[in-house]
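HUMAN: Can I see a protein plus its fold?

ASSISTANT:
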Amino acid sequence: MAVNLEPDRALLTDGTVVAVRELGAGDVGALLVLHESLPLEDRYLRFFTTSPRQLEDFVSRMATPDDPNHVTVGAFRDGRLLGAASYIVLDVPTQAEVALVVSHAEQAHGVGTLLLERLCSLAVRRGLRRFVADVMTINSRMLHVFTNMGLVWTVTADSDVVHVDLGLEPVDTYLDAVADRELTAEVQSLRAVLKPTSIVVIGASRKETGVGNALLRNLVAGDFAGDLYAVNPHATSVAGVACYASIAEVPDVPELAVLCVPADKVPAAAEQCGRRGVKALVVITAGVTEHPELARGLMTAVCEHGMRVVGPNCLGVSSGEPGVSMNATFARTRTNTGDVGVVTQSGGIAIAVVERLRRIGLGTSNLVSTGDKYDVSGNDLLLWWERDEHTRAVVLYLESFGNPRKFARLARRVARRKPVLAIRSASSEAGQRAAASHTAATATPAITRDALFRQAGITAVDGVAELVDVLAALHGQPLPDGRSVAVLSNAGGLGVLAADACVHNGLEVAELSSATIAALRALLPATASTRNPVDTTAVVDERTFARCLDAVAADPGVDAVIVVTVPTALGDPASGVHPVEGKPVLAVDAGQVAAVESGPVPSYTDPAQAAAVLARLAERAGWLARPAGGDELDGIDLDRARAVVARHLEDDHGDGWLAPDQVVELLSAFGLPVLGGVVTTTAEATASAQRGFGCPVVLKAIAVDLLHKSKGGGVVLDLETPEAAADAFSRFRALFGDRLRGAFVQPMAGRGRELLVGVVNDQEFGPLVVTGLGGIDTDLVDDRAAALAPLSAADADDLLHGFRAAEEVFLDVAEAPVRDVLLRVAKLAELVPEIAELDLNPVIATDERCQVVDARVRIEPASPVDPYLRGLRAKGQE
């Protein structure tokens, strides 16, 4: 197996950037220097002796590129090898012995865990299941490294040596540990971007119409708390800031450099910053991406000098955190200091969000415009905001996902702590994909993206206006315990509209208790309506209206209240609207000018606005209440499933679709209740198969280019005799001619509800699991729900109830067997990435069980990827 000598950038726990790659023959010298530099104690712990023999031969074997059983990865900084991790495959082909060496000066900076993560990822992709190692009992640092990995491990003590056995399956404890290490490293690395102690603006023009001038003036006007410099060889000062001819002449090394130079000057400016020791760049300049040589030049400088970079082609960054006060953007309006973290690829969206927040008295903790997103991305900012105490809500506008699976895991962690909102952008494809299966035809980019948002707990909104509407409510109101809403109004017609809007948004209009109705009758005139929606009439004063609100909110059957008021000549009860302990209250004031006003109770101009916002709050509350884990699945034989796939890939020269008997074997390996059958190639064999089953059978043609068998005349039902079965095969021969490859004989299935369960594997997002109506209804009714694998138990429940006909279907169908099928299909797609498409249609479901009657699976070669591997984004990847 060829050695990959191309380095990836990654972060150590102190925030510094290193290059990580496999080692080859050219690295023997660096490996030797690393080992020879070890102090005696480290040598003893590494080799169990202070004088290892034939060290040169040993390190030469570590970097042997033509030996796939011996793999070594190393971490470099400034061309110097900091550490190396290696494995050598033992007699058991799925097991390898692992070893680690780190320069003494670099220990405790996370080099060891970073290298072991890379080595584990390589090993899993190459079929290994376990690492073993012998560690001296006094080597507490190495044992600590193994402990911190988060993998399932066992230790056996033997005199002065501990035998360590590490399972390489990426379990949740391991993925959580990786994310924690990444969080620590990212926070340290991004300090130079979001909390710099000094900034230099390169390209600070004297012209007020220049971008560099505007950005520098914003920094000055925003009272940036650190040291501020400018680079302009033709000026001594700009906006009152001292200018220097080049970055080399700036008296102190700035942490952050903002580049506002022409596109063709960006690579040289970045290189000069790197040589000077600048830690991070914000590249405002547009036009870099359109010229590959400029893009390469920029990234070469960034990688060589270990810098972080925002942009290019971006609005800039701002931070309102205490002690920073940085507005390194060229926006015209000053950003309000607040508690909303915003990351957006679009500078225009950033300006719109900031302006709308300012109008309702909210502001940002950090604003990052990522532009063309060469490095710093939404994933990085999610890590920063996860533990940032100054950020109470997160806003995302992402036009693309470099690594959706990693993004989903990070977003899910953050959303458990604080609201994460995303503005939906347009789909990347116009219309559905051309696909052979019903499942694949469902998987438009919008459906996949929305599934990701929903499962990760992200509140998706359609536009900046709706974003601000929701933020206004999240800022000061609690989440509801359920979806039951009371509407209180002094204008009956608007109250009815509010109730209708609640139902339209999936909320419930609460049935008020008799005690609540009695309390309202005691407060209101006889002409009032005391049933939900409550109409107080226009004659009540604000004090009475406030007491009505308290009465309605106190009802145990009410989870939230929408209060609708209009001013009249008799008074304006809006002033009586107040917060209620433990329950959200949203106001609708038809007389207010602004579309939304924040405050103790957020106020909107239209009932539909308030209902839509309340639905978003209920969605978040429901997601937070969901159990996080999945069901334990037994009866899975992964080796058997992989063997089916491997045999097919080795033998297949066609379109990738598995033969029916292969499909049955694959599904059976994952415990799926698939109806078996027999493949036949002659009329006589078909008759014999029918005789063997001893019951009515169905015959399904196996023919070239016959994907939808029923449509193509390739299915014959209720064949009760061997003669009928043989005759049906003969008819297939006449219909399909040379295209016929055989037939699949199955016993007739029992009756029940027909469902579809399927998978389509998206190269970026991973497997998308789809369910809905099956059988002939699949083509007649477009009614399906979708979710991304891996599925939790809650995700599976969402799928069960996510299609429109679900409520009717599960009146007479047991949910548990269908849920089990969904979870097993998702696990199959997750663990066998070669599955490109899978259609189980129909799945016959009854009140006791379900059975897969027909199934098709298409296999493609898959290059194993590790979406959770730590590493910095390089242009085009996240």
Observations:
- The mean pLDDT is 90.
- The radius of gyration is 32 Å.
